[in-house]
Amino acid sequence: MTTRSTPVIGSVGLFCGSSPGVDPDWRREATAFGRILAQAGVRLVYGGGAVGLMGACARAVLAGGGQVTGVIPEFLRVPEVALEEADLQVVSSMHERKAAMFSQSDGFVILPGGVGTLEEVIEVLSWARLGLHAKPVVFLNTHGFWTPLFDLIAHTMRQGFTPEGFAATFRSVDRCEAVLPALESMAATVDRRPAMPLSLT
């Protein structure tokens, strides 16, 4: 396993589907991203499941000799088929899961997913909007999966509900090879992001 000197991002929180989705490229990209994390020596922090895109990514990290921390609520341990090979942290609630993932992640990567993935990333972005953190967030927008979300965010900006500076809280890339460079670029420029007002009135 190769590691970088003085990495900016030492751990990545991953939000993505516990299902594979209909496009096989999503699973391929999740697996490829896991290999990239292992090669870069970046620890994966994720929801702890062995299935879907999350499982594909985590298994690829482990297969490459990388580190994986899985955070899973007790009630999901059977439904999501916990990846027992990972360093599992079993918590009592979804709130604890998100808090644990947030505290252990230097940045966040968003792969395709459903309403659970949406809820997770919107909360992280909302916290950034409120100035509660400045951790980088990067979407892997394979085949434009996340473009409708970006369009919705732009709509809220045009309608005066979200400040223009909000667009600086995340980035979108089309290839898994571009994810880590985007995270590190965002982390390196965090002090130059403009402050966002809490009210637009």
Short structural description:
The protein is an alpha/beta fold and 201 residues long.
Strand content: 15-25%
CATH topology: Rossmann fold
Globular, elongated, flat, extended or rod-shaped: what is the shape? globular
The stretches of 5 or more residues where confidence is low (pLDDT under 50) are 1-6
Question: Helix fraction?
Answer: 25-40%
Strand order of the largest sheet: 4-3-2-1-5-6-7
Number of contiguous helices? 6
Number of strands: 7
Largest sheet: 7 strands, parallel
Mind telling me which CATH architecture this is? 3-Layer(aba) Sandwich
Q: Mean pLDDT, rounded to whole units?
A: 90
Give me the oligomer status: single chain
CATH class: Alpha Beta
Distance between the termini: 52 Å
Number of domains: 1
Q: Over the alpha carbons, how many angstroms does the gyration radius reach?
A: 16 Å
What would you note in describing this structure?
The longest helix has 17 residues, at 24-40. β6, α5 and β7 form a beta-alpha-beta unit. The relative contact order is 0.16. The chain has a seven-stranded parallel beta sheet, with helices on both faces. The model is unreliable at 1-6 (pLDDT under 50). It has helices at 24-40, 52-63, 94-103, 115-129, 147-158, 179-188, and strands spanning 11-15, 43-46, 68-73, 87-91, 107-110, 137-140, 171-173. It starts with 10 loop residues before the first strand and ends in a 13-residue tail after the last helix. By secondary structure, the protein is an alpha/beta fold. α1 (24-40) packs parallel to α2. It has six helices and seven strands; from the N terminus they run βαβαββαβαβαβα. The chain has one domain (11-188): 3-Layer(aba) Sandwich (Rossmann fold), CATH 3.40.50.450.
